What does this fold into?
Amino acid sequence: MAEAVEFSKSPAEVLRVGSGFSLENVDPASTPGYRGVKADGQGLLVAQDARLKELQEKLFAEGKFGSTKRLLLILQAMDTAGKGGIVSHVVGAMDPQGVQLSAFKAPSDEEKSHDFLWRIEKQVPDVGMVGVFDRSHYEDVLIHRVHAWADADELERRYAAINDFEARLAEQGTTIVKVMLNISQDEQKKRLLARLDDPSKHWKYSRTDLAERAFWPDYMDAYNTAFGKTSTDIAPWHVVPANRKWYARIAVQQLLLDALEGMSLEWPKADFDVAAERALVQAS
Amino acid sequence: MAEAVEFSKSPAEVLRVGSGFSLENVDPASTPGYRGVKADGQGLLVAQDARLKELQEKLFAEGKFGSTKRLLLILQAMDTAGKGGIVSHVVGAMDPQGVQLSAFKAPSDEEKSHDFLWRIEKQVPDVGMVGVFDRSHYEDVLIHRVHAWADADELERRYAAINDFEARLAEQGTTIVKVMLNISQDEQKKRLLARLDDPSKHWKYSRTDLAERAFWPDYMDAYNTAFGKTSTDIAPWHVVPANRKWYARIAVQQLLLDALEGMSLEWPKADFDVAAERALVQAS
It folds into this structure.
């Protein structure tokens, strides 16, 4: 196999939301930091699976021996942007035993009776685990802002509560990777039509997706505001251009790899006498 | 790619525990129903991934539209037999969004204060999901029998309770696949030594594995008894020879494929007017 084409610039840097960021300045069809084409990207995705899996196993192993480290990937996006594909094709390469996936749908009556972070807190990853949030507490400052289900004061309270919550997670050993998959409105139309054209995808089509689509500019505003309020040093946002699915996948994969590489993971040292244990097994 | 070598006889038939079954008559190094060699088996595993994933997605899709179907894979085995490899290499090919994995370790104090099925019931798969039990309620008639933590009457109560429980799951739409991965005592020794010889695997080595190994014949007795009591028509046991990891993986994969094929899965029909919806999206 030919050598995989790697990123020329780190997605963690080029996709990071800094001051002055605005979604309107980002091209959802672009491939920042990557010079390869689709086939290159697909090759890279497969080529890095083993490394991703090894790092995740080290994280898991450390968790069995007293480490407090864990990883949390937060995925937000407009409908059809490809969250499911990230879970299936990027997260899916890791060992299911080390992954905790939480899909946050519309809250139940019980969940609604509590603060918005109540149901989130219950799903934070255990030590050694990779947590994945398919939607998250950010729904409470996105769809809630778009439909004015929360007023300005309440939204401010939530941004602050989110920053406190994420800071606390970080203090507990959690590395947080926040990703917004950024598709264009035209691309969403194509994907909705594609779902309608394929009977095996009809079950994925929801009429509420079309209703929310009508609020596209309001959603972009809500995202921009949320980025400004919650892209912190300990939990920065990354906006991943997602019109090209192959690019979004390698970008998120690389964000996960970089996050794991930054955690200084090591195989736990044996807490027993290996030679003595070997003799016991041999004699058994 | 050359055509994959398929099973000549169905694992669901040749590996099924029937009357008169005894573990001592099974060669853990054999490959029942399969004439291929290791490379063939590895090729088959990969070749069937897409089919497994498609069936699992259909199950998931049906679950969103009122079906009550679900699949439950129960894995039991002696230590090092390869449960983790099944989860990683067979289950791992399915979409993480459709899989509920539960690893049952030694019960907590709260769990111990309840009936043995209490913690199990909480983990049964939701509609549309593939549940995987890495160990299960069978621990309560295996290790409990070996160490006499339960007396003969209590064990009888548990076998009956298990059969009632599994019958109830089946009535609720659950297809149950019960698998015992069968390695030889010599093979376990090799695998324990291999863990000790590889520092990246020391974290997987547990001294209690060696302690339990000393009770090998008692475990085989406990398994044989459990098979006799709980290999029912609605939830038969399958004993999968597991000295050859590649064989165990394709055998379990095939058991899952057969189970899913037997569930008459269909893509849900659209509950909306496709053409009308298409026009709305187009105009949006």
Remarks:
- Chain B has a mean pLDDT of 96.
- The first strand of chain B starts at residue 70 and ends at 77.
- Chain B touches chain A at residues 61, 64-65, 84, 87-88, 91-92, 95-97, 99, 101, 103, 132, 134, 189, 192-193, 196-197, 199-200, 202-205, 207, 210, 213-214, 267-270, 272, 274, 277-278, 280-282, 284 (CB under 8 Å).
